[in-house]
Q: What sequence folds into this?
């Protein structure tokens, strides 16, 4: 099929990582280790929060879903990247590229709203502890998680549908290791105003709603903590939020820089490094951050590992 003597693109070639064969083997081992750590760490969080009755609070219910979204996010990227690192033809079909972008947008958007739900949970626990049990009951938690994935689905579809209608005529090289909407739109020969407008508008709305709700929760939390008279009470209250604050900082910091930085700060290498941080390293770091800063998670892991290695007689 041709249009104005230009051939329709059926596949893309990734150029985002090194072309040196030895470096590719090294990167393969590094990213394989990171991916296995991501699966193991987040899988452990999901396992321990489901298996240990001591971790039955809403905070750990939401944490298990955060770990699930991290696994989905990483799995949408790393397996294909590992394949291309060992393959001579570093290609991906257009349909697979669009599918990858759909799952990236779905899991990424769902994650930021799960983080917002976790911020609301901390607000309810610290600012209104007497009503916490009713405010964050199981039904509310399920609704928050379902809402996060529903919004993520709508966000992904609203961006992928206009993209799939674009005429891609080449070149077919992507200076990246993943399929992202700005990279694909740049390769289109048809009108891209609609896709760019939908992407920027939806991204700003998602970012504004999720970030403002998280910020609002922490403004109230900070005000409540400052009113606590004892230093020990303030320290204990803040410690329950520290892990979440670190994860929020990693998530929003890299994402905002990736999509809303000035053009003067743009470069292929910088794009790749920032994308590695928020799409590969952050899903690996999240369970480490939560397990290192949370005594209850570490204690639950020890209990479950002990029970597994020392089964009850009979």
A:
């Amino acid at each position: 099929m041709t249009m104005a003597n230009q051939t329709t693109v059926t596949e893309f070639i990734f150029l985002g990582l090194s072309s040196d064969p030895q470096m590719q083997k090294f990167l393969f081992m590094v990213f394989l280790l990171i991916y296995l750590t991501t699966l193991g760490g987040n899988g452990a969080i999901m396992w321990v929060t489901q298996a240990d009755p001591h971790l039955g609070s809403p905070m750990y219910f939401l944490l298990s879903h955060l770990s699930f979204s991290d696994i989905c996010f990483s799995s949408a990227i790393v397996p294909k990247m590992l394949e291309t690192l060992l393959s001579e033809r570093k290609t991906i079909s257009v349909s697979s590229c669009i599918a990858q972008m759909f799952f990236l947008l779905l899991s990424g958007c769902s994650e930021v709203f799960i983080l917002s739900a976790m911020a609301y949970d901390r607000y309810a626990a610290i600012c209104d502890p007497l009503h916490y049990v009713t405010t964050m009951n199981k039904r509310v938690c399920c609704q928050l998680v379902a809402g996060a994935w529903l919004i993520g689905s709508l966000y992904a579809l609203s961006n992928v549908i206009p993209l799939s209608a674009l005429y891609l005529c080449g070149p077919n090289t992507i200076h990246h290791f993943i399929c992202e909407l700005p990279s694909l739109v740049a390769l289109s020969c048809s009108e891209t105003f609609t896709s760019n407008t939908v992407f920027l508008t939806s991204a700003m709305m998602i970012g504004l709603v999720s970030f403002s709700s998280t910020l609002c929760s922490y403004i109230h939390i900070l005000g409540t903590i400052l009113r606590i008279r004892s230093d020990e009470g303030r320290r204990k209250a803040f410690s329950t939020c520290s892990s979440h604050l670190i994860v929020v900082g990693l998530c929003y910091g890299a994402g905002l820089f990736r999509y809303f930085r000035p053009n003067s700060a743009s470069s292929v290498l910088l794009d790749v490094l920032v994308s590695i941080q928020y799409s590969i390293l952050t899903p690996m770091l999240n369970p480490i951050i939560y397990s290192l800063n949370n005594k209850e998670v570490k204690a639950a892991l020890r209990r479950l590992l002990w029970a597994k290695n020392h089964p009850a007689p009979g």
